[in-house]
Amino acid sequence: MQTVIEGLAYVLGDNIDTDQIIPAEHLVYSLTDPEEKKNYGRYALSGVPAANAGLPEGGKPFVDEGQCASNYKIIIGGKNFGCGSSREHAPACLEIAGIQAVVAESYARIFYRNSVDGGFFTPLESQTLLTDEIKTGDSVKLDIERSLLTNLSTNKSYPLNPLGDVLEIIQAGNIFEYARKNGLIPQSG
Amino acid sequence: MGMTLTEKILSAHSGGKAVKPGDNLWVDVDVLMTHDVCGPGTIGIFKKQFGENAKVWDKEKLVIIPDHFIFTEDKHANRNIDILRAFAKEQDLPYYYDVGTENYKGVCHLALAQEGHNRPGEILFGTDSHTCTSGAFGMFSTGIGNTDAAFILGTGKLWVKVPETMRFEFNGTFPPHIMAKDVILQVIGDIGCDGATYRAMEWAGDAIMQLSMEERMTLCNMAIEAGGKNAVIQADETTERYVKERTDKPFTIYESDPDAKYRLKKIYNADEMEPVLAKPHSPDNRATVSECKGEKLDRAYVGSCTGGKITDFIAAAKILKGKKVEIDTFIVPATREVEQDLSRERIDGETLMDIFINAGAQIGEPSCAACLGGPKDTFGRTSDHQRVISTTNRNFPGRMGSKTSEVYLASPYTAAASAVTGCITDPRDFLYN
Ligand code: SF4
Q: What mean pLDDT value characterizes chain B?
């Protein structure tokens, strides 16, 4: 598990649901074919209405036209991030676009669980609302061991909630590796 | 210390020891359901993790129901069905409801119920967030992603954190113009769309127990719109009758103990309920129908797992009988069984199907259709700034297709009344005049 993550932040508001993360019409591509899979990066967060895309100003596409990867590495969200559908394409598309961590005030349960069990990225919870403190394009640094986020653009730091129960799964990589380590499923397979 | 219904089911599936909220358990899974959107990804992970020739843990317990992107020319969507078909053949699956055959059903959550896969006391996981619908049968059911589903395919087990339970009790009798959709929208409006996150929503009270299985499913279906992990209603005679008509498999009825501990208990007077709706763009953006009266609409949509059951169409038909719709109106039965019932059920001698056709509505094929937007050629998909009144369950931006369309969620009564006038209309104007 990577314990320090540094990169540009992309800021979103409350209730970013899975239809905004990856609109249903795009759920048709293969997640196993490496070329076709890139489409998920291309359309990641394409359902967010322009005014809410990249706060505070909005109008900042997460992925530039014609690209399959984002320049942003860390998403800062508000309440109930990832609500809606159980589609794993949602955390997957963020990883495919290059996201390494999401920091939100709270998560919808299935999205959080999918992020952890699938090993797509580390979902972290902030203790205060960060969407007023961080602007899209700010450089931020995450120290997961110390549960701390620093906005390098303003030099202010914010405490995060410790990972708790799911830390072991995140450290193992995903639910399968966790189960193998603990003898729940055979090593080879 | 007593246990809630949800806690008892989880306990019985993890070795029988008492459990409490916050415990992490490995539970034995009775049924895993997947569909065309998440099935292929699940199969891919299963093969990667357990080997190309791996067999599923128990083929009797796997149910595959294609329903999302069915009546479309989209090549990728159709390829996903081919993947399911090949897997069903390779694994010799008894419960694969293939597209284009007599075996095709339609929307998974209703098909599960109609085909006898929902049984009290069992644990059902599905790769769809509305899997919580099955809780209407006194069982534990919840939505999961592809990774967790692949884990179950290989092992028959999954880890679960025991949720705290919130109890919603409705006493008295719902007025005849109130439907389960009004009840759930009222509650989501009260607690917010993350008000039940990580928690179980238990429905109780004599008004709830008077509801049909279809209405109970509507209530449980939208628990996820409050963030809930699962919803549950104690099984009773109504449940038993429905289940026994559809399966011979045995089941167990659990009850919450009188001294069970709840995170919250909320008591409502059923007689005081008002028709409500959720305004754009969130299911918790509640208003009473009378507050929004007269707002102009472009179309009406009656369909989906939450609003496309036979009881929903009976309600819509009561209002549409002998009338003409003022705006484009889409009728999408959730399953083939519902579609057939449209030609069987009658109001004063006229079938529901004829009522809808004579009113000028368009009837679609059973599937999810525009409930989730879908490929561009999907029946009923919104475009531009269309303002829609819909019996579906989500109205976040872009849910029904266009990012700029606006969706109002309402009961079939309210949707049908509004279809007749072309603007938001209180169903009482038609039901009692
Ligand atoms: S009808 Fe709508 S909510 Fe129900 S399973 Fe289909 S897409 Fe999901």
A: 97
Query: The domain that contains B358 carries what CATH number?
Result: 3.30.499.10
Q: Is B305 in the pocket of ligand 1 (CB under 6 A)?
A: yes
CA separation (Å) from B325 to B255, B299, B330, B356?
Answer: 45, 10, 10, 9
The CA-to-CA distance between both ends of chain A, in Å, stands at 22
**Are residues B335 and B242 both part of a single domain?**
no
Residues of A in contact with B48 (CB under 8 A): 32
Same-domain status, B230 and B349: no
Tell me: do B107 and B34 sit in the same domain: yes
Q: What is the mean pLDDT of residues A99-119?
A: 97
Cα dihedral sign for B290, B291, B292, B293?
positive
Is the separation of the CB atoms in B29 and B125 below 8 Å? yes
A166 touches chain B (CB under 8 A): no
pLDDT of residue A186: 86
Q: Tell me what pLDDT residue B207 has.
A: 98
Chain A residue closest in CA terms to B402: A47
The answer to pTM > 0.90 is: yes
State the nearest Cα–Cα gap between A153 and chain B, in angstroms.
Answer: 32
Contact criterion met (CB < 8 Å) for B148 and A179: no
CATH class of A4-181: alpha beta
Overall average pLDDT of the B341-351 stretch: 98
% of chain B residues with pLDDT over 70 = 100
> Which residue in B80, B145, B372 is closest to A114 by CB distance?
B145
B75 DSSP 8-state letter: H
Specify whether B40 is located in the same domain as B144: yes
Q: Could you say which of B24, B37, B69 has the minimum Cβ distance to residue A165?
A: B24
Residues 46-105, chain A, touching B (beta carbon < 8 A): 47-49, 79-80, 83-89, 91
- Chain B 279-308, CB below 8 Å of chain A: which residues? 282
Q: Is residue B107 within 6 Å of ligand 1 at its C-beta?
A: yes
Taking residues B325-333, what's their average pLDDT? 98
DSSP letter for A160, please: B
Would you state the structure tokens that stand for residue B331, as one six-digit string? Answer: 């009728």
Residue numbers of the domain that contains B43: 5-268
Same domain, B256 and B320: no
- Ligand 1 center–CA B107 separation, angstroms: 7
* Per-residue pLDDT tens over the stretch B79-109: 999 999 999 999 999 999 999 999 999 999 9
Answer for the pair B143, A86: CB distance below 8 angstroms, yes or no: yes
Asked if B398 and A47 come within 8 Å (Cβ–Cβ), the reply is yes
Q: Are residues B263 and B322 in the same domain?
A: no
> What integer is the mean pLDDT of A130-137?
96
Give the DSSP letter of residue B312.
Answer: H
pLDDT tens track for B132-141: 999 999 999 9
pLDDT at A188: 60
Tell me the pLDDT band of A87, cut-offs 50, 70 and 90.
Answer: very high
Domain co-membership, B9 together with B93: yes
